[in-house]
Design a protein that fits this description.
With about 140 residues, the protein is mostly helical. The chain is built from seven helices and two strands. Helix 2 packs across helix 3 and helix 2 packs across helix 4.
């Protein structure tokens, strides 16, 4: 694979991921349509093989398995799984922090405490005098 083909591949994957992320409803509709098409094709094959239409539809659903599994695999192949999990984790964290404001305030103070205090680096034993103790000093 030459450099131009590699670059085109990366650009195409990036566009596909961005389109799938921003137009989620359309992606879900396309997945539904594709799975329904495969179900119809398999049902038609089973009907031509001599099964009744109801039995063919039942066997086709059993053979294809659940649609949820196929959709999850499609999302994973597009690279949307980590995005969905990140979004869910962020929303969960925000919801929990909103529900417990007494916990939220100390969290913010602790998170930004490094901006208020500066820690001096500890001296290595080779850099300090033997009479000087090793300690961390916090400066205001």
């Amino acid at each position: 694979m030459n450099l131009q083909a590699f670059f085109d591949h990366i650009v195409a994957r990036s566009k596909s991921w961005l389109r799938a992320t921003t137009h989620r409803g359309r992606l879900e509709a396309e997945m539904e349509a594709e799975l329904a098409h495969h179900l119809d094709l398999l049902t038609g094959d089973l009907t031509r093989a001599g099964h009744s239409p109801q039995e063919a539809a039942r066997r086709a659903r059993i053979a294809l398995g659940t649609q949820v599994t196929h959709k999850e695999n499609m999302r994973a192949s597009l690279g949307l799984r980590w995005f969905d999990e990140l979004r869910a984790d962020v929303f969960y964290g925000l919801r929990i922090l909103r529900k417990s404001p007494g916990f939220t305030s100390p969290c913010h103070r602790r998170q930004y405490s490094h901006l208020l205090y500066r820690q001096e680096p500890a001296l290595r034993s080779s850099q300090r005098e033997p009479s000087q103790p090793v300690e961390d000093r916090w400066l205001a």
